[in-house]
């Protein structure tokens, strides 16, 4: 870690130590899993409870806050126009509305990363069957070699002009936490007239969004993960204007789940002045208290400063990666370390030495279970292995073992699996002493399990 990064942590730790006391997490467990579900700050939680009580007394109101005010709060923090922001139930809901709403035609192709979450894989697989769309995968460079430029080259190699309609990827990627170069990939897509869709379930709350400047056509966000809002909340961003960041015409988007009828096109078109965010938000009677809580937590993030929060999380994640590399060797890290633009708050690693241990589903699941039961530390892990995108014709049997990261070579698309990942998150409430304790316990446990399974 650089002296500059270390100074940042020294300077900011008193503030974030105080901020961490706003979260009502179990003090007996070190919770390193904002990527599973975040914890609401206590003031937001109190307001949520009050809103639920108030709406129970007067349910006719439906909303605890005008929906436009909620959308405005999100838009301010995410650097977007309010007409581009819709409130959804979660990132999967937003992603499904986007992907199902695209004006697909038989023969269209979707170009996707090999490391997608089931939410994206399932929806695109249904689209492929329903509309005759072909799914093409691009490979990613090995983590030790990965750069933003290398990723863009890997994607460009797989584009088929006139046939590739969609470029879809997550950022950060779910299995190993690698941030993708969203802006550069959006520019590549624009040059070929391709629609970009980003699954940002782990983006908002961790990183500082600049949606209008990203050039991306559509984003899907979770409200309850790193953003630390309540469950049942998400955000959908739909680019709604031609700009320098993306000068291409607006893509058609059919409204899949909307009660909007007045001044709303029914053919997927995007006439000037159409508030697509409002139309996408209108869907029955949600639990309005949840939307107000999302609004409140976004305002809290903005009060602190999203750039400040991002710097703390990324600095803490770098510290965690450094400690893990010291404890287990640099090969333990399953994500890029050379190109800092690909870093996120998700730290993916595998503590074992032998390849058989690094790929063993049962051993790695035992590691996480015992880390919780014996040491009271909660992390997550695992990837899709053979359950991801359909196998290619020339794949060898069992190319991807269960639970491993199913990456592919960016040149020939041969299987290039990474080890079974464990994911520890540098959460906004996490402190360096907790990281130190986590790494110490993980090392003790890994060595114990390696001795126990020496002959496996």
Automatic annotation (TrEMBL):
Gene3D superfamilies: Aspartate Aminotransferase, domain 1, Type I PLP-dependent aspartate aminotransferase-like (Major domain). It comes from the Bacteria. Keywords: Pyridoxal phosphate. The keyword Cell wall biogenesis/degradation does not apply. Pfam families: Aminotran_5. Residues 68-336 form the Aminotransferase class V domain. InterPro entries: Aminotrans_V_dom, PyrdxlP-dep_Trfase, PyrdxlP-dep_Trfase_major, PyrdxlP-dep_Trfase_small. The keyword GTP-binding does not apply. PANTHER family: BLR1280 PROTEIN, L-CYSTEINE DESULFHYDRASE. This is Aminotransferase class V domain-containing protein.
């Amino acid at each position: 870690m650089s002296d500059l990064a270390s100074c940042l942590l020294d300077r900011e730790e008193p503030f974030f130590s105080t901020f961490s006391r706003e979260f009502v997490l179990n003090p007996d467990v070190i919770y390193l899993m904002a990527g599973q579900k975040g914890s609401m700050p206590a003031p937001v939680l109190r307001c949520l409870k009050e809103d639920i009580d108030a709406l129970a007394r007067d349910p006719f109101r439906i909303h605890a806050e005008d929906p436009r005010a909620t959308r405005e709060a999100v838009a301010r923090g995410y650097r977007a126009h309010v007409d581009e922001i819709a409130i959804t139930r979660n990132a999967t809901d937003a992603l499904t509305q986007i992907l199902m709403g695209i004006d697909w035609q038989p023969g269209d192709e979707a170009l996707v990363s090999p490391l997608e979450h089931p939410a994206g894989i399932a929806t695109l697989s249904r689209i492929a069957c329903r509309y005759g769309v072909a799914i093409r995968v691009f490979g990613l460079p090995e983590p030790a070699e990965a750069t933003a430029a290398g990723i863009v080259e890997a994607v460009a190699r797989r584009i088929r002009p006139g046939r590739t309609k969609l470029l879809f990827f997550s950022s950060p990627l779910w299995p190993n936490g690698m941030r993708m170069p969203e802006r550069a990939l959006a520019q590549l897509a624009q040059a070929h007239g391709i629609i970009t869709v980003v699954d940002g379930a782990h983006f908002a709350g961790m990183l500082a969004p600049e949606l209008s400047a990203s050039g991306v056509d559509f984003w899907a966000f979770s409200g309850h993960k790193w953003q630390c809002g309540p469950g049942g909340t998400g955000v959908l961003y739909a680019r709604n204007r031609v700009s320098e960041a993306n000068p291409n015409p607006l893509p058609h988007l059919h409204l899949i789940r909307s009660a909007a009828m007045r001044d709303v096109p029914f053919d997927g078109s995007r006439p000037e002045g159409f508030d697509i965010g409002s139309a996408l938000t209108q869907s029955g009677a949600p639990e309005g208290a949840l939307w107000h809580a999302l609004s409140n937590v976004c305002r809290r993030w903005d009060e602190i400063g999203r750039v400040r929060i991002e710097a703390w999380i990324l600095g803490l994640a770098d510290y965690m990666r450094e400690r893990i590399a010291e404890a287990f060797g640099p090969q333990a890290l399953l994500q890029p370390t050379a190109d800092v633009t690909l870093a996120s708050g998700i730290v993916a690693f595998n503590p074992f030495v032998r390849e058989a241990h690094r790929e063993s589903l049962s051993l790695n699941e035992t590691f996480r279970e015992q880390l919780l039961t014996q040491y009271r530390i909660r992390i997550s892990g695992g990837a899709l292995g053979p359950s991801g995108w359909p196998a290619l014709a020339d794949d060898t049997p069992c190319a991807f073992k269960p639970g491993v990261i199913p990456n592919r070579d960016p040149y020939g698309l041969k299987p290039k699996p990474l080890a079974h990942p464990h994911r520890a998150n540098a959460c906004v409430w996490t402190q360096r002493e907790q990281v130190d304790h986590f790494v110490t316990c993980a090392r003790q446990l890994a060595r114990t399990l390696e001795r126990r399974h020496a002959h496996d």
